[in-house]
Fold this sequence. Notes:
This is Conjugal transfer protein MobB. The protein is an alpha+beta fold.
Amino acid sequence: MVARIGSSKNIQKVLNYNEQKVAKGRAVLLAAEGFLKDAGRLSFYDKWRAFQRLIELNERATTNAVHISLNFDPSESLSNEKMEAIAAAYMQGIGFGEQPYLVYRHEDAGHPHLHIVTTNICRDGGRISLHGLGRGPSEQVRKSLEQKFGLVPAQRKSNQEQAAVARKVVYGNDDLRRSIANVLQVVLPHYRFGSFPELNAILGLYRVQASRGAADSRTFKRGGLLYHALDEKGRPVGPPLKASILPQNPGLKYLEKRFAESIAQKVALQPRLRTKLDWALSSKDVRSWDSFCQALAKSGVEVVLRQNEEGFIYGVTYIDHQNKLVANGSELGKRYSPKGLGEQWGICGPANGPKPAESGHQKQALLHPYNEKKSDQLPATRSELLEVLLASEFTIEQQAAQGQKKRKKRKGRRPK
């Protein structure tokens, strides 16, 4: 069992989060301790007002709401009665047994868990200190409850075990929210990525895509974020999920923070990735993309190619699962870009990679193209190629017109 203790300055916000889950059928209220009515007869106002009466007794306390989650191993099958008993024993152990609290069972993740809502303001106006509560009393109670109720002990999992939790999202087979949440819990906190294309490169391996929506959409203008499930060909399928309804709210603010944290970490890890790439390129048997990808797979590196409909590879992203690093070929060096690799192997043009339908490696040419234009990259799509051609014709006509103007200004020519 894993216990997480959070605090807030707004009890109504914490209540709304859990009540909205109940309204959508993703949670159920198990118990209401310290209230005048039974759990089934309580309205939202009853719950909020009971907490608010205590909070008003101590106007100096800014942090007055406590939000606790108890998370259990996915292999455990716990009844509502057992969860309620665990919650009661936990609250009594950490010193909140006399406080009013609500217990919600949530069904929006890949493991059984419950949420507890309470306040740290007592009936005499005093305040229960939250400092060190998670590291001290909570840890002691957690270990005793694991033995008492026969729960799977909490333990730090290795990178391989964490990666094994996530599975490719297959739309229609499993609960969509739970499947996407499992992928995000494995990828977002652990991998280093510095941009949306790099994030989508690793998410695409699990058939998930992050999107801000169209530039003129309300989601984009309000700073929202959507997560899509992808089909076998990498195309969005099914309804998108808002980041706000997923565990830990992995929205735009969270990702921007992860981008900033990852940039410095990536610089320190890039030499390790280059060493693996150099080792693969030093082999005489590596003379094509297929052999290159197979050689890197032995080192725990996965290759994501970006190519257009004609099979021309214009970008590559390397995912080092061992060091949890996602890096674009261009940032590692020209030697590791599609053009640099093609020159080393003596291949160029559309023949430098397999067709999207023939390759076993994931292609994200149309879904997640990079916005920046590199000098060593050719136009990725027909529309971009057409723009380049039209721009060239316009330039030629403009130069011809300028040449005529220059000829009119030659010296020695008399005006009419």
